Amino acid sequence: MLDAAAPALLAGMAVGRPGCWLTGCCAGRVTVSRWSLWSSDRRVAASRYPVQLFEAAACGTLAIGAEFLFLGVRHSGANFVVGLAAYALVRQVLFPLRSDPHTRWGRTAVAAGALAAIAVAIWVMML
């Protein structure tokens, strides 16, 4: 059941994150980078990293990958764990681009990486 839910959860995040960008929550840092877009953090409009759109693109890509894994292998729960651990790693990579990073690269990234490695090992043993 969880393997079937992983692609849908990731696709839901891909659809929802552009709404965050439009409302200004989870705003990116102000920058002059070519990757910036004009947006607001609900107080100041400026050229910012579109962190929410980066995350939406990553979630869409992970959803497609999770769907291919779901269709191609036996279901052991490892697909769910790999998909969500990959999502946690993406969030950790994007946190420094946010205007108010809630966490630093650290324990969460290590835990997500270790969990993904364990899930991939289980997935490989199931083949």
Would you kindly provide a brief summary of this structure?
The chain has 127 residues and is mainly alpha-helical. It has four helices and two strands, in the order H-E-E-H-H-H.
What are the main properties of this structure?
127 residues, mainly alpha, two-stranded antiparallel ribbon, 2 strands, 6% strand
Task: Please describe what this structure looks like.
There is one protein chain. With 127 residues, this protein is mainly alpha-helical. Helix content is 64%, strand content 6%. It has four helices and two strands, in the order αββααα. Strands 1-2 form a two-stranded antiparallel sheet. It is elongated, with a radius of gyration of 16 Å.
Lateral arrangement of strands in the main beta sheet = 1-2
Shape: elongated
Give the ordered list of helices and strands: HEEHHH
Structural class: mainly alpha
Specify the helix fraction band: 55-70%
Unreliable segments of 5+ consecutive residues: none
How many distinct beta strands? Answer: 2
Largest sheet: 2 strands, antiparallel
Distance between the termini: 19 Å
Report the portion of residues in β strands: 5-15%
- What would the average pLDDT be, to the nearest integer? 84
Computed over alpha carbons, the radius of gyration is 16 Å
Number of helices: 4
Blueprint of the fold:
Blueprint: H1 2-23, E1 37-40, E2 45-48, H2 51-72, H3 78-94, H4 107-126
Antiparallel strand pairs: 1-2
Helix pairs in contact: 1-2, 1-3, 2-3, 3-4
